[in-house]
Amino acid sequence: LVANGTPQQLSQMLKGGQVLSLLVKAGEAQARAALRELPGLDSLESAADPEGTLLRLHPAEGADLREAAFTHLSQAGLVILEMKREQATLEDVFLQLTEEKEGETA
């Protein structure tokens, strides 16, 4: 057993429970490169989309990535088509908890 609680409690365990989702009009490598040095970024997921690249930014605890993400992407000349904060999903929580456990056993 890695963790126990309601879905809402488990989501809150994920460093504040928030994820920033972005749709960027750019290729995946270009979008990831623009956010490489983003302060407060804990982890980044990306996937190709017909309109560009979908990004899910996981902030470090207490970090609000919206303004910095906008600035970094704008300075790279990339267009943000969509930006929204979302509650972390149970999949996000599972991935975070299992990555932490793997790090402890390595």
Q: How would you describe this structure to a colleague?
A:
- The chain is an alpha+beta fold.
- Helices cover 38% and strands 32% of the residues.
- It has helices at 7-13, 28-34, 66-75, 90-105, and strands at 18-25, 41-49, 52-59, 79-87.
- The chain has a 4-stranded antiparallel β-sheet.
Q: Helix-strand pattern, N to C?
A: HEHEEHEH
Q: Order of strands in the sheet with the most strands?
A: 2-3-1-4
Helix-strand category: alpha+beta
Major pleated sheet: 4 strands, antiparallel
Distance between the termini: 18 Å
Mean pLDDT: 82
Which ranges are low-confidence, i.e. pLDDT below 50, for 5 or more consecutive residues? none
Give Rg in angstroms. Answer: 14 Å
Strand count? 4
Broad shape: globular
Report helical residue fraction: 25-40%
List the helices and strands and how they pair.
Layout: H1 7-13, E1 18-25, H2 28-34, E2 41-49, E3 52-59, H3 66-75, E4 79-87, H4 90-105
Antiparallel strand pairs: 1-3, 1-4, 2-3
Concise summary:
With 106 residues, the protein is α+β, with helices and mostly antiparallel strands. Helix content is 38%, strand content 32%.
